[in-house]
Design brief:
By secondary structure, the protein is mostly helical. The chain has helices at 2-22, 30-45, 49-59, 64-71, 76-88, 110-129, 138-151, and strands at residues 62-63, 92-96, 104-108. The chain folds into two domains: 1-45, no CATH class; 47-130, Winged helix-like DNA-binding domain superfamily/Winged helix DNA-binding domain (Arc Repressor Mutant, subunit A, Orthogonal Bundle). It has a three-stranded antiparallel sheet. The chain is globular, with a radius of gyration of 18 Å.
Length: 160
């Protein structure tokens, strides 16, 4: 857990550096900073958007129906509406399915991937804080390794 404290400190210093470079001082503009942050949080993390982004990040590409099934409590039209909001925000992009030309597959844009990667340590920290320490099931680890063998993609650690 100490590594998360180090990451947290690095993130704090990074943010402070960005504030300095942009000439903004959040401590002096507290109400404005809070307003901007709340607006972003509602726009990007509201309406279960964070769940959608996190799922697409792990699945790489997913159809609206599959995503609705994974997350539950959604119909396909509801999921498509949410995906269009994320698409208009530049976080996801729509592509065609090779299996079904009439069906769209959604993946993260660069901006969406950056947000997901920045958020991944938060999920890991919370999972570890809740007592998660088990390795993925052996079958899953083998599948990830075999997929990496086929694609040559060894640069990313397996996600659980």
């Amino acid at each position: 857990m100490e590594r998360f404290a180090v990451l947290s400190e690095m993130c704090f210093r990074f943010s402070q550096d960005i504030y300095l470079r942009t000439g903004s001082v959040p401590e002096m503009e507290v109400e404005e900073t809070i307003g901007r942050n709340v607006s972003i949080a509602r726009r990007v993390f509201g309406n279960r958007f964070l769940e959608i982004l996190a799922t697409i990040y792990l699945k790489k590409a997913v159809g609206a129906n599959e995503l609705a099934t994974i997350l539950g409590d959604f119909t396909k039209p509801e999921m498509v509406r949410r995906l269009r909001v994320l698409e208009s925000a530049g976080l996801v992009e729509r592509g065609h399915s090779f299996d079904d030309p009439d069906s769209a597959r959604y993946s993260l844009t660069h901006k969406g991937t950056v947000i997901a990667r920045l958020g991944e340590p938060v999920f890991l920290y919370l999972r570890l804080a809740e007592g998660w320490t088990t390795a993925p099931p052996k079958a899953q680890a083998v599948a990830v390794t075999e997929a990496a063998d086929q694609t040559g993609a060894y640069e990313a650690a397996p996600r659980t």
